[in-house]
Automatic annotation (TrEMBL), chain A:
<dbReference type="InterPro" id="IPR027417">
    <property type="entry name" value="P-loop_NTPase"/>
</dbReference>
<keyword id="KW-0813">Transport</keyword>
<dbReference type="InterPro" id="IPR003593">
    <property type="entry name" value="AAA+_ATPase"/>
</dbReference>
<keyword id="KW-0067">ATP-binding</keyword>
<dbReference type="InterPro" id="IPR051120">
    <property type="entry name" value="ABC_AA/LPS_Transport"/>
</dbReference>
<dbReference type="GO" id="GO:0005524">
    <property type="term" value="F:ATP binding"/>
</dbReference>
<feature type="domain" description="ABC transporter">
    <location>
        <begin position="5"/>
        <end position="253"/>
    </location>
</feature>
<dbReference type="InterPro" id="IPR032823">
    <property type="entry name" value="BCA_ABC_TP_C"/>
</dbReference>
<keyword id="KW-0547">Nucleotide-binding</keyword>
UniProtKB/TrEMBL annotation, chain B:
<feature type="transmembrane region" description="Helical">
    <location>
        <begin position="287"/>
        <end position="309"/>
    </location>
</feature>
<keyword id="KW-1133">Transmembrane helix</keyword>
<dbReference type="InterPro" id="IPR043428">
    <property type="entry name" value="LivM-like"/>
</dbReference>
<feature type="transmembrane region" description="Helical">
    <location>
        <begin position="250"/>
        <end position="275"/>
    </location>
</feature>
<dbReference type="Pfam" id="PF02653">
    <property type="entry name" value="BPD_transp_2"/>
</dbReference>
<protein>
    <submittedName>
        <fullName>Branched-chain amino acid ABC transporter permease</fullName>
    </submittedName>
</protein>
<feature type="transmembrane region" description="Helical">
    <location>
        <begin position="61"/>
        <end position="80"/>
    </location>
</feature>
<feature type="transmembrane region" description="Helical">
    <location>
        <begin position="114"/>
        <end position="132"/>
    </location>
</feature>
<dbReference type="InterPro" id="IPR001851">
    <property type="entry name" value="ABC_transp_permease"/>
</dbReference>
Length: 254, 322
């Protein structure tokens, strides 16, 4: 099986500080790979370097065999790698439905002039993505909130809508930055089911940063452990659970 | 849900009543009020263009008077120096204004934002005013530049009534175009950039392109308003495009309601009409203007558009929140 995403020797160095140092891994279709590590381990830097928000000083990122390491964020997203943000990235003034529709922006036909002149092509495209966005919300049982401004949702609802928006265009690779942070146990359970459904039914390759251990152990196929910018271990949840290097990184040397 | 959206868009058709009623306006006016009504149409476009950039796109850019002046001078120069009929100068003024918008967006794309963008774009406006004053050969300098009303495709553009109908058609077309844009994926992307530029890019939306588009559309409609202004006053002077103009335009945006199309119309109409009532008390105009702006913003921080929203949901200003 060829890998969807292949990260090799990825590094981000700022004048002496190694925020990310020589990290390599692969992600396959339908696989959930968790990235764990203490605060400051470089997990979010890894996400930023892959998705174009931080400039890697060395290394390579192949998305379906295409090098994306020096592409801008919107190009990487257009190529099929999409992400969510730790502190939430919803557009508060837009409704839930409109937020999901922005996720379909690149798949909406019609030029500037089609839109400006209200040509049939643009009007029909608009109706079509509106319906599609509504259907996607229905799948997550969020359609009753479609016309609510996104800023009025609860934290858990916002996380779910952000994921719906991010996967609306059916990207083959998804990067989730702490999707369960601040969620109630029930919402956390729901989030885990969403992640499993995306990987299992849709075959999305998911890279997941998460601190909630039970969620990581239950949802991840593979785990990448980082500390101080570098990879310290890699394996299945069972292997990681009994890994000495991991225990040391978290608990300090005994 | 679907039905409510359906009826909402049907009910939006009542907006076409506004220009239809306006068609009959010249029957009720005298030459003086007709002149004011024409100015209202010009300022509707000026305010709308300004509101797209500072309200919808959320960029603190104050190059609006630059666009307005560039359009007015493009029209006057094409008319006087090149001998083109006024109607033919209108698209030229729009393109010149759009180019001004492109220049202003370049500053924003270079990472100049917030207060820095405000000061850079204001300097752009002042630089243009200096240019009009000091390139007398082209612009007539402080003596101003006349706009020829002679050749005009058989339209007697000297008549304020004829001007009114021409302005009304242009304004309606540009307002409709702006509404189409704002209600499309481009309009959503413009607001998305305001709300969270980083997250917008993560959805594959080319944020730079969206910023340039919003600025250029703003420049285009304000540039066309400039051409209308040139015809309306018959002669353009550098002093018309200074900081006073900018402050008045800014007040129109705020009084109407940031980022609202209906608000732009209301703000422009209200603040064009009200100062006329105090013409009789020289020296009081500025004070009166200031008091009006303060009272409206204290009572209705979201502008006159929020008043309409209370009357009917179709005016709901969904695109701006605190």
């Amino acid at each position: 099986m060829t890998s969807l995403l292949k990260v090799e020797g990825l590094s981000v160095h700022f004048s002496g500080l190694k925020a990310l140092d020589d990290v390599s891994f692969e992600l396959e279709a339908g696989q959930v790979r968790a990235v764990i590590g203490p605060n400051g381990a470089g997990k979010t830097t890894l996400f930023n370097a892959i998705s174009g928000y931080a400039r890697p000083t060395a290394g390579s990122v192949l998305l379906e065999d295409t090098e994306i390491v020096h592409c801008s964020p919107h190009l990487i997203a257009e190529k099929g790698l999409r992400r969510t943000f730790q502190n939430g990235g919803l557009f508060a003034a837009l409704t839930v439905l409109e937020n999901v529709m922005t996720g379909l922006h690149t798949q909406t036909p019609g030029t500037f002039f089609d839109v400006l002149l209200g040509r049939r092509k643009a009007v029909e495209a608009e109706i079509e993505i509106r319906e599609k966005a509504r259907d996607l919300l229905k799948l997550m049982s969020m359609d009753h909130m479609a016309d609510t401004p996104a800023g009025d949702l609860s934290g858990g609802q916002q996380r779910i809508v952000e994921i719906v928006r991010t996967v609306a265009s059916e990207p083959p690779v998804l990067l989730l930055d702490e999707p369960a942070v601040g969620l109630s146990p029930v919402a956390r359970q729901q989030m885990m089911e969403i992640i499993k459904r995306l990987s299992g039914e849709k075959g999305v390759g998911i890279l997941l940063i998460e601190h909630a251990v039970e969620l990581v152990m239950a949802a991840a196929d593979r785990i990448l452990v980082m500390a101080a910018g570098a990879r310290i271990s890699e394996g299945t949840p069972e292997e990681i659970r009994s890994d000495k290097a991991v225990l040391e990184a978290y608990l300090g040397h005994a | 849900m679907q039905t409510s959206t359906g009826t909402l868009s049907k009910r939006r058709r009542i907006f076409w009543l506004v220009p239809l009623i306006a068609l009959a306006l010249p029957l009720l006016t005298n030459p003086y009020t007709q002149f004011i009504a024409n100015a209202m149409l010009i300022y509707t476009l000026v305010t709308l263009g300004f509101s797209v950039v500072i309200g919808n796109l959320g960029q603190l850019a104050f190059a609006n008077t630059a666009f307005f002046g560039i359009g007015a001078y493009a029209s006057a120069i094409a008319s006087t120096n090149l001998g083109l009929p006024w109607l033919a100068t209108v698209p030229l003024a729009g393109l010149a204004g759009a180019f001004g918008g492109f220049l202003a967006s370049a500053a924003a794309l270079r990472g100049i934002r917030l207060y820095y963008l405000a000061i850079v774009t204001m300097a752009f406006g002042e630089l243009m005013r200096w240019f009009y004053t000091h390139t007398g050969v082209l612009t007539g300098g402080t003596d101003g530049l006349p706009v020829s009303r002679e050749r005009d495709f058989g339209l007697a553009l000297t008549s304020d009534t004829v001007q009114f109908y021409v302005f009304l058609i242009i304004t309606c077309l540009l307002v409709a175009g702006t509404v189409n844009l704002l209600r499309s994926r481009i309009g959503r992307a413009i607001i998305a950039v305001r709300e969270n530029e980083i997250a917008t890019a993560s959805l594959g939306i080319p944020t730079s392109q969206i910023i340039v588009t919003a600025f250029m559309w703003s420049g285009f409609i304000v540039g066309i308003a400039g051409a209308m202004f040139a015809l309306h006053t018959g002669r353009v002077f550098p002093e018309s495009f200074g900081l006073t103009q900018l402050i008045v335009n800014f007040a129109m945006v705020l009084v109407g309601g940031l980022g609202s199309v209906a608000g732009a119309v209301l703000g422009a109409v209200a603040l064009t009409a009200l100062p006329e009532y105090v013409r009789a008390f020289p020296g009081m105009e500025e004070i009166f203007f200031g008091v009006i702006v303060m009272v409206v913003l204290l009572v209705m921080p979201k502008g006159l558009a929020s008043l309409l929203a209370r009357v009917s949901p179709i005016f709901q200003q969904r695109y701006h929140r605190d």
